[in-house]
Specification:
alpha+beta
Length: 693
């Protein structure tokens, strides 16, 4: 039974992924609901984010449709929004899928959370406040309790008690993530285990219907307070299966229990398989089930469990998060120990707060929270405690885990003892076939592209690959988002790039230069250059170079803060040319045309359309002078009206094949053959299209 359930859960997961890659609608969502502007009424069922700038609310409308509502002018406090009926007007949109090869797939993440669509609005109206029931009172008390804590303590307590990371400062959370200790800030099996231990101490170790019922009730209330996170539900159900099984004298098996819970999750929502919390939660259980028994018995159970989980999760963390924390084993022991003390104190403080006895344990909670942050900081080994890692191919990760868990199984030991090595080789071949099939299904032709127009939202970024040599022209940028750290760095690491050899900026505007500065702060750029003028060239390798065409000079009093002074680059890649115009306007285009009159210096096979497709760039004469076969508009969601419809019409009239980051995601071109081949990350339906082979 143990093997059959585990095998069934594995096959079910594989079939869901296979069906999804084949384009089947595995969640049976209604695609006709997208693109319609109307007035909606719905119930707020979760608050994902709440700041002075914007709030993100999960709202249930029409009975069974869940949308992620982003409100830019929401002045209501979270406790008043929770479970309230609200009214708003907006356009229901399909969530953005993966925008760059190998990177985060926002659409699948939302689907794994049961969210079908996104809506952006400027305001909402509460039409009926929350009902005064126990469920809403508990959540309201949660909001009030967190608000009563100091700013330094609030983030840690919110993470440890409820898995809520919204109150954490970014640098604090980054340090926990880099140390491999961020799991204590998301409700997991550790937290449920601590709570269960407290319950057993209070109720005693004897099993009875009363103690089991109370245990079940408390654990499910805690899951509710943690908003039903995957790891909390998984741990709770598995603990209760063990407890009730013991009461009814039934044998408990860790792997069987995990398989039952996994199957339940996948039946409830097939896209659960794409959720990082789901993946890590069950990988941890598999690691304990298969690897812990191989660790010497003289090592305490708690430490051996942690070692097994770390070994099991390291490859996944490298693949998913591109980080290897060498300080993880050192830091985890004291951090988990302190968190195990802090959680009971914080939980007791929360219960006392609900009973009106405020302030009794605040001093202990504050002290332990500060100690936790300090210990995590001191033992982090500075910048030497973690390393950025490039992602391995998905098929190698799958093959590694299949081999690791099989070699750790009793079945493998029996075959080795019986010297039946042919059967072992047969299993390895099966694993290799499975991994290869997954590799084929997940293959993306953009990984072979020579020139990639990276999707950085409203901004420009071009990645040039020449073997192991990598160049960026511009890097996007936003005033409220770290594009360098949160977009460019993951994109590069997931596509095998550790360092950018040369980064060039067309000019110093935020949406072109800021991302490069942020990436440079991450120590991923060897040489950063701006202020290039005509005649200054960059040689990449034989037959590949970047020539600066414009401007002739840059006035010192203006610098590159003006669009007319932005650098224009011609990329020579083998026998092909790519013209990069930055934000050059029509007036600048005409001056450049006049300067190069009588030459073919501006002719190119691919044109990066100027200024995100603005109506002030890309004049007819310039298009005729360049005469490209392909053109790319680097644009994202914006309020400027980019790209202008007339620019698009011009390209269509001249027979230019046009691509846009906002509709196609990343756009790539292969320039190593007899003809140009291209690929895009996705079409309007979220399907990867590529002619690059």
């Amino acid at each position: 039974m143990r093997r059959k359930l585990f095998l069934f859960a594995s096959i079910l997961m594989f079939c869901i992924v296979l069906a999804d890659y084949a384009g089947l609608n595995v969640d049976f969502s209604n695609k006709e609901m997208y693109g319609k502007s109307t007035v909606y009424t719905g119930k707020v069922i979760s608050i994902e984010e709440h700041t002075s700038e914007k709030s993100k609310l999960v709202v249930e409308i029409k009975g069974d449709i869940r949308v992620l509502l982003t409100v830019y002018n929401c002045h209501e406090l979270p406790r008043y929004l929770w479970k309230s009926q609200i009214k708003f007007s907006g356009i229901m949109e399909k969530p953005q899928d993966r925008r760059n090869p190998g990177c985060f797939d926002y659409a699948k993440h939302l689907k794994s959370e049961g969210i079908d669509a996104v809506i952006y609005v400027d305001e909402l109206k509460i039409i009926r406040s929350q009902e005064n029931n126990i469920e809403n009172i508990l959540i309201e008390k949660r909001f009030e309790y967190l608000a009563s804590l100091s700013e330094n303590c609030k983030g840690i307590v919110a993470g440890i008690l409820f898995g809520d990371k919204n109150h954490l400062e970014e640098n604090v959370y980054d340090q926990f993530r880099e140390n491999g200790t961020a799991h204590i800030l998301a409700v997991s099996g550790l937290h449920v285990g601590v709570l269960y231990g407290l319950i057993r101490k209070v109720l005693g170790k004897r099993f009875s219907i009363f103690t089991l019922t109370v245990t079940t009730l408390i654990l499910f209330i805690y899951c509710f307070m943690a908003l039903w996170s995957f790891s909390a539900v998984r741990a709770t159900v598995m603990i209760l299966m063990k407890e009730w099984g013991t009461y009814f004298d039934q044998r408990y098996d860790l792997l069987t229990a995990a398989s039952v819970v996994a199957i339940g999750f996948m039946i409830y929502n097939p896209y659960t398989v794409y959720n990082a919390g789901f993946q890590m939660s069950f990988l941890a259980v598999l690691a304990i089930s298969f690897l812990q028994r191989l660790i010497p018995r003289r090592i305490p159970d708690g430490v051996s469990t942690m070692i097994a989980v770390n070994i099991g999760l390291i490859p996944y963390q490298i693949f998913q998060f591109n980080i290897l924390s060498v300080s993880s084993l050192i830091v985890n022991i004291p951090v988990i120990y302190i968190a195990g003390i802090l959680m009971p104190f914080a939980l007791a403080d929360f219960v006392l707060y609900m009973l009106g006895c405020t302030g009794w344990l605040d001093v202990f909670v504050e002290a332990l929270s500060s100690l936790l942050v300090k210990i995590n900081q001191v033992l982090s080994l500075g910048n030497y405690g973690h390393y950025d890692m490039v992602s391995m191919p998905l098929w190698t990760l799958v093959f590694f885990y299949l081999t690791l868990f099989y070699f750790s199984s009793e079945h493998f030991e029996i075959l080795v003892m019986r010297k039946q090595l042919k059967k072992v080789i047969r299993f390895e071949l099966i694993f290799l076939i499975i991994a290869a099939l997954i590799g084929i299904l997940s293959y993306n032709g953009l990984t072979k592209a020579d020139i990639l127009f990276v999707d950085v939202g409203q901004g420009d970024c071009i990645h040039i690959r020449a073997g192991s040599y990598n160049v960026l022209i511009d890097g996007g940028g936003s005033i409220d988002y770290n594009v360098g750290k949160q977009t460019l760095k993951p994109y590069l690491l997931k596509n095998g790039v550790r360092k950018i050899d040369v980064a060039l900026a067309t000019h110093l505007h935020t949406d072109h230069y800021k991302g490069l500065c942020e990436l440079n702060e991450e120590k991923m750029i060897k040489r950063l250059i701006s202020g290039q003028t005509a005649g200054k060239n960059v040689l990449i390798k034989d037959a590949i170079k970047i020539k600066t065409l414009w401007p002739i000079s840059i006035p010192e009093d203006i610098g590159q803060d003006a669009n007319e002074n932005c650098s224009v680059f011609m990329i020579f890649y083998n026998d092909y040319r790519i013209l990069v115009t930055g934000d050059l306007d029509s007036e600048g285009e005409k001056k450049m045309m006049e300067y190069y009159k009588g030459t073919d210096s501006l002719k190119a096979d691919i044109l990066k359309i100027g200024h995100h497709g603005s109506r002030y760039s890309t004049c007819d004469e310039f298009l005729d002078a360049v005469n490209p076969k392909y053109a790319v508009i680097q644009v994202g969601r914006n309020n400027y009206g980019h790209p202008n419809s007339k620019v698009i019409e011009k390209c269509e009239e001249k027979g230019i094949i046009l691509f846009r980051n906002d509709t196609h995601g990343c756009v790539g071109f292969s320039l190593s053959g007899e003809k140009i081949t291209y690929g895009v990350q996705s079409d309007q339906n979220g399907t990867c299209i590529s002619n690059i082979s």
